[in-house]
Automatic annotation (TrEMBL):
Limits of the MacB-like periplasmic core domain: 25-229
Pfam families: FtsX, MacB_PCD
Localization of this protein: Cell membrane
Membrane topology, as annotated: Multi-pass membrane protein
One GO CC term on file: plasma membrane protein complex
Coiled coil segments of this chain: none
InterPro entries: ABC3_permease_C, Lipoprotein-release_system, MacB_PCD
Name of the protein in its database record: Putative ABC-type transport system, involved in lipoprotein release, permease component
GO-annotated biological processes: lipoprotein localization to outer membrane
Length: 492
């Protein structure tokens, strides 16, 4: 094409200006592709770290006007009693397990409690309540046991975090061992509660952070008891009650059954005959009703973690689950791993957002500099442009000529920037960016970051280079089109 030949000739004739503009574009593209590839690698590593070790691919949870997450926020959140339960849990779990793309699920409770040992305060721990066998199947490589391991049978067991253990031993001055019994104090809907738990092991999260290191794993029923998650926290089992004629709930018992009647009062004291055995279990009478009111609800769960067979199906599966919940009028939501990761994922996404803002500012500055350089170039070529117009070239030809010049320069410089950025990423990948900081280990998905070229950043960088060329050519082209051919030829 004639226009391309003219564009290349003009670029070669103005080598200094071409080099300046090309260098700016190449640096901008190199910065874009390198920075976004590193951030994409961090996000991918963080996703692998969290989804493989803590959150799964998707999380079903209840809804609340207050914010909450997998981790109770600390002593102020008590035992996590404000975290909503998943309604109709068995229906939800059964429906999700039948989906072909689902590999496994893990019901989970979240809470917190203070610890005491032999009536001595021994610190605080956040708690995840689960069935230990299900947790081991879902996250087989997430824990590093320093002593003990998963309990072989159900029971009131707790796996204590090493960080929590160290804090407890420091506070009490006494060592903790496997088999020791500790007292947990939690707060639920019906007030404060104390429960005993036996230490079955001590562990560290292989990819922990300051917040995760405070989490201990506990038998789900112990945490339910701490949180007061009975079949009905107010003491009436609605499911087993019947409605009276007036539409009110009639409990399965009467006042006399609960409290007795006048005849139940002891009028005279009957002495215990010598040698007679006292049946202490019968003193309180029939406790079956009371036991039913305080029975723990086995279907009370805060979260359902879901692992998929293929992570590429996360968006489609998330949409399918949410549709199922909405169709069934179940007041629950499904979120991806980043919701479960909480502040760490939010920080990583905020870093990428800030980085892209910086990139946008750099691109605007680059466009302004390139535009000014092209304006100077057009001004110096007024006689040439006037001659072209005088011999019959229309305004469209001149506009295309300048556009092709800037596009050619932008694309070539952009490709150079991509090449430099790719080589730089290859070098950094080979060397690695090591960090002993636990927070960066979570971000990196390991102790060393090895960034790889992101196809998304490559495409966006090329598009940015083309956009630079298009935008930069608009103002210089408008100046060139305002030049009258007669006046331009007078400057020859």
């Amino acid at each position: 094409m004639v226009i391309l030949k003219i564009a290349f000739r003009n670029l070669l004739e103005h080598k200094v200006k071409t080099a300046i503009v090309g260098t700016l574009i190449a640096l901008a593209v190199m910065f874009m592709v390198t920075g976004n590839s590193i951030l994409d690698t961090i996000r991918t590593g963080m996703k692998q770290s969290y989804s493989a070790n803590y959150t799964g691919d998707l999380i079903v949870h209840g809804t609340s006007k207050d914010s909450f997450s997998l981790l109770a926020s600390g002593p102020g959140a008590a035992s996590g009693s404000d975290i909503p339960q998943i309604p109709e849990f068995q229906t939800v779990r059964s429906s999700i397990e039948q989906m072909p793309q689902v590999q496994s699920v893990l019901p989970l409770l979240s809470g917190s409690a203070s610890i005491s040992l032999n009536e001595e305060t021994a610190g605080f721990t956040m708690l995840w309540g689960a069935n230990f066998d299900e947790y081991a199947l879902m996250f087989p490589d997430s824990l590093e046991f320093t002593q003990g391991g998963f309990p072989e049978e159900p029971g009131p067991y707790i796996l204590l975090s090493e960080s929590v253990r160290e804090a407890a031993e420091k506070e009490t001055g006494k060592p903790l061992h496997i088999g020791d019994s500790i007292t947990l104090a939690g707060f639920g809907a019906s007030g404060s509660r104390l429960r005993e738990a036996t230490i079955a092991g001590f562990f560290r999260f292989k990819r922990g952070n300051e917040q995760l290191n405070l989490v201990s794993l506990i038998d789900a029923n112990i945490l339910r008891s701490l949180k007061g998650m009975t079949r009905n926290p107010m003491g009436v089992d609605i499911a087993s009650s019947s409605l009276g004629a007036n539409g009110t709930t009639e409990a399965a018992t009467t006042d006399d059954e609960l409290f007795g009647n006048g005849g139940s009062l002891v009028q005279t004291i009957q002495p215990v005959q010598s040698g007679a055995l006292v049946n202490y279990d019968a003193i309180l009478g029939d406790t079956s009703i009371r036991n039913r009111y305080t029975e723990l609800d086995p279907n009370a769960w805060n979260f359902l973690l879901i692992r998929l067979k293929d992570s590429a199906s996360i968006p489609a599966t998330q949409e399918s689950i949410q549709t199922m919940l909405t169709t069934g009028s179940i007041d629950a939501q499904v979120s991806d791993w980043s919701w479960g990761a909480g502040t760490v994922a939010t920080l990583a996404m905020a870093l990428q957002f800030i980085f892209n803002i910086i990139i946008a500012i750099i691109l605007v500055v680059a466009i302004i500099i390139i535009m000014n350089t092209l304006v100077i170039s057009v001004t110096e070529r007024i006689p040439e442009i006037g001659t072209i117009r005088a011999i019959g070239a229309g305004k469209g030809f001149v506009r295309r000529m300048i556009l092709w010049e800037t596009l050619t320069l932008s694309v070539v410089a952009g490709l150079v920037g991509l090449l430099i950025g790719s080589v730089l990423l290859l070098v950094v990948n080979r060397v690695g960016i090591a960090s002993s900081n636990m927070f960066f280990a979570i971000l990196f998905g390991g102790s060393t970051l090895r960034p790889v070229l992101s196809m998304g950043s490559l495409v966006w960088s090329l598009l940015a280079a083309v956009a630079i060329g298009l935008v930069s050519s608009l103002y210089p082209a408008s100046i060139a089109l305002k030049i009258a051919p007669v006046k331009a030829m007078q400057k020859i």
